[in-house]
Amino acid sequence: MNTLITYLRHVENKKRAKKQQGFTLIELMIVVAIIGILAAVAIPAYSDYTAKAQVSEAFALSASAKQAVALYRAEKGDFPTTNALAGLSASSEIVGAYVSGVAVSTGGAITATFTLGTAGTKTTDATAVNVVFTPDDTTNTGSITWACTGTVQDKYLPTDCTGA
Q: How many Å apart are CA 155 and CA 69, to the nearest integer?
């Protein structure tokens, strides 16, 4: 009786060992196809995410310039035309990893110029890509609203950008 039980266990172990032979070619092809589909969706989404992050640097660097322009407007009754009048450092000194300068110009407009090749700009030629923040103190009395325009693709601009 013990011999029969031992033999049956031996046969059962052989069946288990035979079942676990690995993946079939079709199973491997399905896995590769799924990974390919995921990569096709994930890579463009990640590229857009990276570009939005790079473009948002212009908004962060321009925040202090917006405050300086608003303060100048409140004190002098007019908008500054240069960084010096607004009490800011030179444009070439207000830089970041993706922004090459932030400049105040006529009418208090603030221009953040991107470094060539920044992902959100989608250009590598000599054309300067920028975001321009234009102040408007006529719409809401006592406060300034900022319209943003520029040469950056709209899909990379934050949702609070109220320009064209």
A: 27
> In this model, does residue 8 exceed pLDDT 90?
no
Model confidence, pTM:
0.70
Q: Is 27 left (phi over 0), alpha (psi -120 to 50) or beta?
A: alpha
| 66 contacts 102 by C-beta, under 8 angstroms | no
Q: Give the pair of three-digit tokens for residue 114.
A: 């991107």
Domain ranges of the chain: 2-156
pLDDT at 163 > cutoff 50: no
Q: What is the percentage of the chain residues whose pLDDT exceeds 70? A: 84
Residues 6 or more apart whose CB falls under 8 angstroms from that of 106 comprise 81
CATH of 2-156, one of 3.30.700.10, 3.40.50.300, 3.40.50.1260, 3.40.50.620: 3.30.700.10
C-alpha R_g of the chain:
30
